[in-house]
Each structure stands twice: as C-alpha cells, then as structure tokens.
Amino acid sequence: MSTAQWEVGRGSSQGKKGNDQVHSWTLLTSHALDTVWRLAKGSVLLAVSFLVAALCYFRRLHVRLGHRLKWWIGYLQRKFKRNLSVEAEVDLLGYCAREWKGETPRAKLMRKAYEELFWRRHIKCVRQVKRDKYDALRSVLFQIFSQGLSFPSWMKEKDIVKLPEKLLFSQGCNWIQQYSFGPEKYTGSHVFGKLRKCVELLKTQWIDFSAIKDYHKRGSMCNILFSDAILEYKLYEALKFIMLYQVTEVYEQMKMKKVIPSLFRLLFSRETSADPLSFMMNHLNSVGDTCGLEQIDMFILGYALEVKIKVFRLFKFNSRDFEVCYPEEPLRDWPEISLLTEDDLHYHIPIF
C-alpha cells in the first residue's frame, strides 16, 4: 500500500470515528432531552391537574358558601321580620291590590273601602301589625309612643306602679291573684310583683317617649321597642291591668250610687262581666291567649288611656258603623289615634 493510500484510509477512519462520536453525543443529548421532557411533562401535567382540581374545589366551596350565606341572610331577614311587630309604611292602594284580588263580593267590598280611605279620608299608607291576640293593644300603644302623647292625667296623679298592691290591700281584691298573663295561667302570690314590673315598664317607657320631641327619633325608638317580644309582652299586660283597675274603680263608684259613664253600665249589665272579677276571669284573662279585645274592651281601653280611638271598620263599608270611636263621647279633649280593621279581629295602623 502506498503512503498516499494509507493517508487516505487513515483520514476516512478518523472521519468515520468523528461522525460516530457526533452521532453518539446527539443520541445522548436527545435521550437526555427526552428524559427531561418526560419528567417535566409529568410535573406540568401533575401541576395542571392539581390546579384544575384546586379550582374545581374552590368553585364548589364558593357555591356552597354562597348558598349557606344566602340561607343565613334569609334566616336573619325572616327572624327580624318576625320580631318586628309593626312593619314599615306601605302604599295603601298597593297593599289593597295585593291582599284583595279576584271578583268575590268581599274582595270588591274591600277594594271600595280602601279607595274610600285613600280618596276621601286622605289615608295614603298603612303599617301592618303582627297578627296575634295582642294586636289591638299593640296598634294603640305604638301610636301613643310614636306620636309622643302625654301621660294620662289620672296616671300623673297616682303612682300607677303601686296600683296592684292598692287593689289588694285598700280594696280587698284578693281575687287578683287569679290574673293571667296571656298564655301564662295562674301565678298566685307572684302576680303582684309581676304586675308591678309590667306597670313600671309602661310608666317609664311612656314618660321617655313623650319627652322625645324629634319625630324621627321616636320612630327609631319605636322600631327598637316593638322588635323586642319580651318587652312588648310586659307592656300589653300592663295595659290589661290598667283596664282592670279602671273597671274596678268605676264599679266602686257605681256601688256608691255615683254617676258612671254609659259604657261601664253596658259592661256591668252583661252576665259575664257583672263585676270586676267576672270581667277579669271571663274576658281579660283570655286577651293575649285565645282572643283579642272586643268592642266594649276598646271603649275601656280608650277611657283608661285617655285617647279617642277612631277605627275604620272596612267590612262595614257603606254603613253607619264604617267609622266608630272608642269612647264615643270622650270626657275631655283627648288626643285621637286611628286604626283600621277588616274583620274586628285584627288591626293595622293607617298613615294620613
């Protein structure tokens, strides 16, 4: 072999070896990149899967929390509304349209009655009052407080907090121990302390409200007071007792042959209320429990609180009994408050 041929063969061998080395490095690099890519791809897929799972979890959590939040908001709204015993003002005719749809004779009568209140009596709004056995007392007391009416004159002359004991010790009315606080029945010797606390609360609240000159502030205070069922309960029982006290006082005057208001003569002419005890047992003890106030009770309430209670009786539309006052002939120039009723069972507050 010549030198030239050997050199050519050596060059070819070295070129082949170099190509093999390049190819080996290429394969190694490619293999390394494939390995890195597989690892990276697995990590990326794992990360993406985790991110998608996390997003799905948080989305479900958000939906679940949203539903739970809506439930709690609804619950609190329902609870607040249930405790707010005198609702905010609503348009009178709008309220009528919602409550009295259809073409029944009663629905037509109610729509005409509401139109009468709106166009001729200038009543623009109504405040709905919680429907229970205290709603007549609630409707009257809310207006007394919201209007800031003065304390009755006879209550200024006497310490009404001491009236329960006065009936027992001065007038010998030991039967008052059978007084019932609405659904709470016979309380025995504890009745005096319980009544005293109720009457004391009524006196304090009445004085406080009458001292507030700002109308909006009185309204805010009323919303607070008439959202507290426990305080309301005590105030209404105090009003019931005040009615009982007035009946007892007038009964004593009648026994002494003194002239008494005609409404009390009517009261004592009934077998079920011939005296204060029968009035309490057969009528007053049921108020707040199984029944509300009857018409004659409304007379006594107006007399005891020294207010003229005007009531629009919508079911009596187009009759002389559509508008009545309790009492019919107030003894003095007493302030006037208004109520409306669709059935003499439940009362609402008209806003002029």
From TrEMBL:
Work out whether the entry's keyword set contains Magnesium.
Answer: no
Which is a Gene Ontology cellular component entry for this protein?
cytoplasm
What is the protein's species of origin?
A: Rhinolophus ferrumequinum
Per the record, which residues fall in region Disordered?
1-20
Q: What is this protein called?
A: OTU deubiquitinase with linear linkage specificity like
Record-annotated membrane-spanning stretches: 39-58
Tell where it localizes.
Cytoplasm
Query: Where the protein is mainly located, per its record?
Result: cytoplasm
Q: Which family does it belong to?
A: Belongs to the peptidase C65 family. Otulin subfamily.
Question: Which taxonomic lineage is given here?
Answer: Eukaryota, Metazoa, Chordata, Craniata, Vertebrata
Asked whether the UniProt record includes ATP-binding among its keywords, one would answer: no
Q: Which UniProt keywords apply?
A: Cytoplasm, Membrane, Transmembrane, Transmembrane helix
